[in-house]
Design a protein that fits this description.
This protein is mainly α. Helices cover 78% and strands 0% of the residues.
Length: 427
Amino acid sequence: MNAPSAPARARLSGADMRTLGLSALGGALEFYDFIIFVYFVVVLGNLFFPPGIPDWLVQLQAFGIFAAGYLARPLGGIVLAHFGDRLGRKRMFTLSIFLMALSTFGIACLPTFATLGYAAPLLLLLMRVLQGAAIGGEVPGAWVFVSEHVARRRVGLACGILTAGLTAGILMGALVATAINRSFSPAEIHDYAWRIPFAVGGVFGFFAVYLRSWLAETPVFQQMKARKELSHGLPIAVVLRDHLKAVTVSMLLTWLLSASIVVVILMTPTLLQTRYGISAPTALTANSFATFFLTVGCVTTGFLCDALGARQVLSLGSVGLALTAGAFFYLVPTRPDLLLPLYSAAGLLVGMISVVPFVMVRAFPPSVAFSGVSFSYNVSYAVFGGLTPLFVTLALQVDPMAHAHYVLALCAVGFVLSFFLPKDATS
């Protein structure tokens, strides 16, 4: 696998830490904007769809709009990645977060079905599509950006810190959702309080645009530009013609990442309420603990990737996630007193997902790195991440433990896939 020509130093410098800090903070704010939707999916379903239809259908329709954000990711990601490989990483890095802030604030201002009728869910869908296009450029762009700022021997740690920043956005969403549910009554949330987290996210997003202005273009891109080594054709065409093996591995890894995040972190608060009979405040509090440990797991995994290599980390992480997620989903119905420790353990092992960007950013040459990572990640996440809520919701009608079985199956895929990765830590 080809790797970017990163700086030669082995340690993270002060400039590296500043870049990682600003990138992670901006990513956290943008990821908060993207996922806050799922924490209010029940309320949004009731407000933006016709009254009188079954609850499961309301939930399915709301998750469908949630999925639309994932389905929009490939197009947004490919377009932003194309210009990121041709014009520079930083410009697209900033544009993505501006689009996210704009669409998130737009959701906060939308009229509901009671006011606009069927135009309301259509406008909600439009805002969600814009969010998807923005996040499609943000996540792969962030991984490539930070990996090109640090030494090759610290790419794992850099990707781990950045991924922890993205997952911190999920934690922010969980904390805000918990605060809203504890501070307002269900009637108040239904009337107006649901708008608060989206308005806050929009404001924070515009602040993140300002933060990005302090970042410098990556040394790798500057070197390619100086040497006239930038891709002259369509970067995505080069990726599909010359790097299909890297694309295949990256897409399968993203499938595992999507199953871990979407089911264990994003869908579980709703499942705990609707399937396990746990109150919303308790479910969201437990989710906050799990997401906190997820961020810790991301950084730890990044460090281990540099020390041990992706193969060992992926194999051990897949087994560990299967054990902890399985214990959580199967034991909590009969042992609700174990909710916090079991969910926290599962969240910690979900952190093994930061092995995914470590593999991907090293799988493509610098001239098409943004496009390669973006295409692989976004297409796979659009299919698997976007359709997972719909699939699991429908599967639960026939299999009460469909959510657990889906995660366990993907852990098996991750374990098998680990044997196709390089054995040594530096490959």
